[in-house]
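Weekly modeling sync, notes
Attendees: S.R. (lead), two postdocs, one rotation student

Agenda item 3: backlog of single-chain predictions. S.R. asked that every request posted to the team notebook include the full sequence so nobody has to chase files. The rotation student volunteered to paste the first one in as an example of the format we agreed on. Action items at the bottom.

Example entry:
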Amino acid sequence: MELNGLKNLYKSMKNQSIDRCRFEYVNGKGKFDVFFFIDENPFILLFGAKGANFSFEIEVKNGFIIKPEFEEEIYYKLIEFLGVKSNKGNPFKPFNFFLDFNNKIPSTINASNKAKPHETIVYRKDVEEAKKIYFLQWRNNNTSGDNVSKDNLEKTKKLLSVKAYERCKSKNISSCWTDIEEKAKEFYMPA
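Predicted structure, as returned to the notebook:
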């Protein structure tokens, strides 16, 4: 299935050098934080169910093509979250969910839609020190004789960007995090 609604959003992101954006999507009773990550290959759509404890990711391949299907567990959580009455004669169809989504994708965004790490971690919790959600700074491990850990690299990739991950991996740099919002710094690429 082609999500042609992503084409203009993608152009808007590229024109503003935004690799990750966030917008809201409403379907029935369900409200979602939707993240579009164009720095990953394939691109990723992350749907975070607001007020519920689940999320799911959809790969977006070249041509904005997706597979309109869900794992069984996600399927049942989703129909419950949406308040859909599914039955054998009229089952909930993922294709229709994505058709509705496609029609509601924003065509443009601005800097306020740029996805922030503390927004992303709500739905990508499986990272080291998950309570530390605010970006603090970079640490050059070469000066201390240490090595960046695999877990830290994974957190950098999931919450910041693939570019930051690659730079940190090649230059032995760790991302540092805090759980104190007032200490948070705006994300910037490591030198």
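Discussion: group reviewed the output briefly. The radius of gyration is 18 Å.
Action items: rotation student to repeat for the remaining queue; S.R. to check formatting next week.
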